[in-house]
Amino acid sequence: MVPDVTPRRVAAGSVLVGGVALVVVVYAIVTHEPANDGGTSVAGLFFAIGLLLALPPLAEAGTLAAVLRWGTPAVWPRRLLSLGAVLGALGASVVLLWPLTSLVPAGIRVPEFLDPTPGLVTGVLALTVVGGLAASGVGVVAQLITEVRGSG
């Protein structure tokens, strides 16, 4: 039996994943101890990437929830906004998967055909944030067009 997936559940799941990812990034920022060698740290870049991946799902889910709450979304705007929230949550999952890479023991040799996979998977998941923002943006525009046509 296929579970019933409503846009409200999609928004709630996206908020959950984005919120946990944001907590992970903030925790990493707070507990980071910079090197004492006087050089610059690349940690700031990773923190910025983490924030850029963790914040969009919250905005996309908020947009979806606002349209559901205060509007009557047509079919396609609702689908596009839901797609944006799902893609944003997938992108935020990169932030949650990064700490897991430290759990692989150093002595384990990764087969050659799997060697580029983690970077590729991380990149593809990070690109889903861009797709999510695009889908949510098109969904908002479609909803606005629907509202303007309906009020005329």
Question: Gist?
Answer:
The protein is mostly helical. Helices cover about 75% and strands about 0% of the residues.
What separation lies between the terminal Cα atoms?
A: 42 Å
Number of helices: 4
Q: Helix- and strand-based class?
A: mainly alpha
Write down the overall geometry: elongated
Q: Please state roughly what percent of the residues sit in beta strands, choosing from under 5%, 5-15%, 15-25%, 25-35%, 35-45% or over 45%.
A: under 5%
Tell me about this structure.
- The structure is a single chain.
- This protein is an all-alpha fold.
- The chain has one domain (7-151).
- The protein is built from four helices and no strands.
- α1 runs parallel beside α3 (75-97) and α2 packs antiparallel against α3.
- The longest helix has 35 residues, at 117-151.
- The radius of gyration is 19 Å and the shape is elongated.
- The termini are far apart.
